[in-house]
Every structure is written in C-alpha cells, then in structure tokens.
Amino acid sequence: MKKSRRSFLKVASIAAIGLGAAPAMNFAASNSHGAAKAVKDKNEEALTAHRWGMVIDTNKLTDEIAEAMTEACHSAHNVPDFNHEVDEEKYPNTRPVNMKQEIKWIWPEKFHYAFPYKEDEFLAEKFHHLPIPVLCNHCKEAPCTQACPTQATFKRKDGIVLMDYHRCIGCRFCMAACPFGARSFNYRDPRPFIAETDPDFPTRSKGVVEKCNLCAERLAKGERPHCEEASEGAIVVGDLEDPESDIRHLLAEHYTIRRKQSYGTEPSVYYIV
Amino acid sequence: MSKNMIISGLVIFVIAVLSPFWAQAVFGDKHVVPKPELVGKAATAKKCVLDKYDMRANHMSLLDEWRDSVVRDADRRYDAVNGHSFGMSLSTGEDSCLGCHEDKAKFCDSCHVYTSVNPYCWECHTNPKEIE
Q1: Which sequence spans correspond to the domains of chain A?
Q2: What is the arrangement of strands in the sheet containing B77-79, beginning at the earlier edge strand?
Q3: Lowest mean pLDDT among A115-119, A128-132, A133-137, A263-267
Q4: Are residues B74 and B88 in the same domain?
Q5: Using beta carbons and an 8 Å cutoff, which residues of A are at the interface with B?
Q6: What pLDDT, in 10s, does the model give residues B12-28?
Q7: Residue that wins the pLDDT comparison between A126 and B131
Q8: Is there a contact between A72 and A230 (Cβ–Cβ < 8 Å)?
Q9: Where does the pLDDT of residue A34 fall: very low under 50, low under 70, confident under 90, or very high at 90 and above?
Q10: Closest partner residue to B124 among A38, A40, A202, by Cβ?
Q11: Which of A54, A79, A256, B110 has CB atoms 3.0–4.6 Å from B34's, for a disulfide?
Q12: Please, where are the H alpha helices in chain A?
C-alpha cells in the first residue's frame, strides 16, 4: 500500500484529535460530579470562642495554688524542670544547667515585677507577698506575631496566640518583641529534665521558642485549661467577646488591671485586685 | 592485537560493569526489602487513612497537611474518603497513626531504616510505647 502525503496527514490529524479526547472527557466528567473529598473539622465537643481570655482573681491566690497551677501546666505540657536530677544512664554527660535558661509557661511573680507601673509608694501590704501568676497574655495586638519572620507565632481566629513549632527557626525575635517575658528559648534538649513525659503532648526540641498555648489541645477536646482546673476558682477562662460569658460578668462586676497596658498590645489576661 | 584478546577483554569488562547485579546475589547478605508489619489495632483494622499505595507514597504530605490543620486551623478531626474518621495526630489518641500502628519500630522504622529516612519529628513527638 502506498500512502500519499495527503492521506498520511488526514490519519495523523484524526489520531491527534483522539489523543486529546481522553483528557477532555476526564475533565468534563470530574467537573460534573466532583471527586469525593476528605473533610477536616473540629471535634464535636470542642470549646470555641471569638476571643479567648482569662480573669485571675488575686484575692483567691495563695502560694500553694500558684504552685499547683504551674505544676499542672508544666507537667502536662512536658515543660522541663532544671531542678530535676538527670538520669545519668539515659542521658550521659549532660552539662550542668544554667538557671537563666529556664523554661516557663506560667509562674508566680512578685507584684512589682508583674506590674512595674502600679507600684505605688504606699502599696497595700498584701501585694508585697502575693504570688501573681504570669503567662502569655494572648494579646489582641500581639507584637510577637509581627516580629516572627516565618509566622511560626501567629494569632488564631479564636484569639489564642499560638506557636507552630514546626515552623520555628529559633531566631528569638518574638522574645525580643514580647514585653512580658512570656517566652522561653530551648538552649538545650529539654528531655533530660522532664521527670515524667506526658504522652498526650509533644516535648519541644533544642532551638525552638516556647510558651503557653492556652491549652489549645484541651479546648479541642472540650476540656478546660489545666491552670484553671488547678486554681480553685482563682482563674476563669472564657470568651471575651461574648457579653453573656462568665468572664465578662466578672469583668463587669470587678475592677481589673492588665499588665503594661500603656504598650497598646491589649492583653487578654485580666487581674482582679 | 588478536581477536581473542579483544573478545575476552570485552567479556571481563561486561562482567565488571554488571558486578552490582551479580555480586549482591553471590556475596550479598541475601537481605530482602523489609515488609512493614501491621501490628496491634492495625492488624484488625481494614483501612488506613488513604488507600495502601497512596499511604505508601504520600503519608509525608498527609502528615504535613494534618499538622497545619491541627495547629493553624484548630481542626483535629479528619473524615477520610473511605468513610472512616481519624483524630489528626501522630501519636495521641486511639485513632492516630501510632494509636493504630502500635509498633513504631516494626512498622514506620522498618521502612525508614531501609530507605535511610530519619524524620526529625520524634525529637518532640513521643512514641507512647517508649515512655515507661
């Protein structure tokens, strides 16, 4: 059989149309009913808010309660305790600790450190001894989120200022930006200093910054934050933007102060004094 | 040069070039590709998150998607195409990766060691079985 140039071109062009047909048909088919897609959602029992906040009633605080809050938070989040004696067998040649490199999420502070601008000349006696719990303020205008070059620290839709440890490069700009010293840097592997690792939360690694997450992992399961549970009523966590919430009622009834208000970061942690 | 010399030279060359293929069979420690073992709940569960070959090829991207969803969007539940629902987590909860693939060493690690993959995830994430 002898092919002319003309008949070859005919066959070739029909074949070319055929080649294009399959993708075109697939495209049309996929558009008509759409492939099944996985759905990502919140747990049904999750607690949600427009803007999470906290009220701390300093009248209800004692040293024991303040310590219990720190203990509950730190043990559940695997925050290392540099006073913990290192297991030499598991972690040989661990270098001595430097207490300045301590990691803290929530801890009791002296009134005049927590509120440096509120230290009046004749401050009521009790404030000299009160253990004021301080933590990340989950500021409305959080300077740390603006300083972070990788958006590892960011503001979640529900107002929580959260760390995405997967993105943290350890530059510590956020620590410089935070006026409250609420952030700690992992200068070393924290694991040797964790007495009992809680399997419900990851540890951190050397080289990342960490801080309070307002128990995002508990709220997601419908549970209350650890510090609130350990506080014997001294801490109430709730929705600052819901006028009917417990926390807003407390704020309506009591005089409250916030830390370093003049900086304009709008902290979400209020203190009843 | 004689024809024989050239031929035998060529034969030696070909054998040398193919050495990686036959040396493994002759001198190699007869090792085989490890088969990841389905241990614990995974042994009785019928389905993974995606289908088997998709998991094999894409579990890293799935985990990447999961962590973004959990940390950044606060969504922790994953309703998979196959109708099952999972808690998006590496190791916390019954329906997380390690909650179902209960033996990390025999499952994840057997594959990763063979392929020289060393995920840094475990610097932070914990294997519940390793915590005494």
Answers
A1: 21-48+61-88+98-223
A2: A39-41, B77-79, B85-87
A3: A115-119
A4: yes
A5: 36-43, 46, 154, 156-158, 162, 164-166, 189, 197, 199-206, 216, 220
A6: 999 999 988 888 777 77
A7: A126
A8: yes
A9: very low
A10: A202
A11: B110
A12: 5-33, 63-76, 111-114, 143-147, 173-177, 216-219, 226-230, 246-253
A151-173 pLDDT, tens digit per residue, is 999 999 999 999 999 999 999 99
Nearest alpha-carbon partner for B102 in A199, A221, A39, A75: A199
In chain B, how many domains are there?
2
Is there a single domain that holds both residue B43 and residue B17? no
pLDDT band, residue B29 (cuts 50/70/90): low
For residues B18 and B81, membership in a common domain is answered with no
Q: What is the Cα–Cα distance from A250 to A258, expressed in whole angstroms? A: 14
Mean pLDDT, rounded, for A97-118: 94
User: Mean pLDDT score of chain A, rounded to an integer?
Assistant: 92
Q: How far is B110 from chain A (nearest CA, A)?
A: 23
The model carries a pTM of 0.87
Are B18 and B75 in a shared domain? no
Could you give the CA distance from residue A86 to residue A191 in angstroms, rounded to a whole number?
9
Q: Is the dihedral of CA B29, B33, B36, B37 positive or negative?
A: negative
- Domain around B77: 33-131
Who wins on pLDDT, B58 or B41? B58
Contacts of A113 by beta carbon, 8 Å cutoff, 6+ apart: none
Selected residues 45-74 of chain B with any CB under 8 Å from a CB in chain A? 67, 69, 71-74
Q: Evaluate whether B55 touches B97 at the Cβ level (below 8 Å).
A: no
Q: Which of A42, A199, A203 is the closest to B76 by Cβ?
A: A42
Q: Are residues B49 and B7 part of one domain? A: no
Q: Does residue A261 carry a pLDDT above 50?
A: yes
Q: How far is B42 from chain A (nearest CA, A)?
A: 20
